[in-house]
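Quick one, tokens below:
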């Protein structure tokens, strides 16, 4: 009787798990394995079918100058967006955590860019960046400054996209820091004030260490977000000019759907997944020593 009851419990548990497992296998594990297999085959066509080339696609990728340019662009993009977004998120969270008039409106204003669709955000900033008629050039004209093609200049196109991404992401990260701040006992601040600690000292020695678990979570998400930007580039620049704003995931999209080289796109995807896995693991193991869980 006991054996039958235990068996039914296990069967019931597996039945509950099966729908989620099917979705996970169908939309995560199977695509990953299929992508890895496709990266070992050449581009196929109706005349010449795909054939096994081993590491040939990876050799072609290593010799591809566009790949290295895109990779460097993505590294600069990540370095430009991640630290600033996190710093702004902490600053905004600390501000709206205080007792302020109109605090709810301020929180909504900070969070609103996050809920806007990416295509809508890209079109909004396209209005800002349009040369001569855009908002930025209109304001610059009031001070006698000449107009500038922000998205058409290789020197300014990537910083322009970085600014837009920070504007969209900082409010999303702010929510996590705000939730973390609201779980920190107010007695800590009172005790620090009685000890004569300055605000900067309290933040550096007390508040920020307590926010490290949230920072680890936000940092991993920020790294993932910095390598999966497609929508903005599709609307604003399409990777131009001269691949100055091209990022790795957009290059994968371009290879698969513009050049129809799905096997090379699979190779790039494998490299992207490997990079993200290495960076996520490095962040976890490096920052885990500095995190104090309660």
């Amino acid at each position: 009787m006991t054996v039958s009851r235990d068996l039914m419990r296990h069967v019931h548990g597996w039945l509950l798990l099966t729908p989620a497992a099917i979705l996970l296998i169908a939309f995560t594990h199977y695509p990953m394995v299929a992508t890895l297999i496709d990266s070992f085959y050449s581009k196929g066509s109706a005349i010449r079918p795909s054939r096994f080339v081993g590491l040939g696609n990876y050799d072609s990728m290593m010799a591809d100058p566009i790949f290295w340019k895109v990779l460097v662009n993505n590294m600069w993009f990540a370095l430009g967006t991640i630290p600033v977004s996190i710093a702004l998120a902490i600053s905004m969270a600390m501000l709206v955590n205080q007792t302020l008039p109109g605090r709810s409106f301020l929180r909504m204003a900070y969070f609103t860019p996050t809920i806007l669709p990416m295509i809508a955000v890209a079109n909004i900033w396209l209005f800002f960046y349009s040369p001569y008629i855009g908002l930025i050039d209109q304001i610059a004209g009031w001070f006698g400054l000449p107009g500038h093609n922000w998205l058409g200049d290789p020197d300014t196109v990537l910083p322009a996209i970085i600014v837009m991404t920070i504007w969209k992401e900082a409010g999303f990260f702010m929510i996590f820091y705000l939730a973390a701040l609201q779980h920190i006992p107010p007695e800590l601040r009172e005790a620090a004030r009685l000890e004569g600690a300055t605000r900067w000292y309290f933040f550096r020695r007390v508040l920020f260490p307590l926010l490290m678990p949230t920072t680890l979570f936000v940092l991993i998400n920020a790294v993932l977000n910095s390598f999966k930007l497609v929508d903005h580039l599709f609307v604003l620049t399409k990777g131009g000019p001269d691949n100055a704003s091209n990022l790795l995931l957009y290059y994968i999209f371009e290879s698969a759907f513009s050049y129809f080289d799905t096997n090379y796109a699979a190779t790039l995807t494998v490299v992207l997944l490997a990079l993200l896995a290495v960076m996520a693991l490095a962040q976890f193991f490096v920052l885990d020593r500095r995190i104090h869980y309660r």
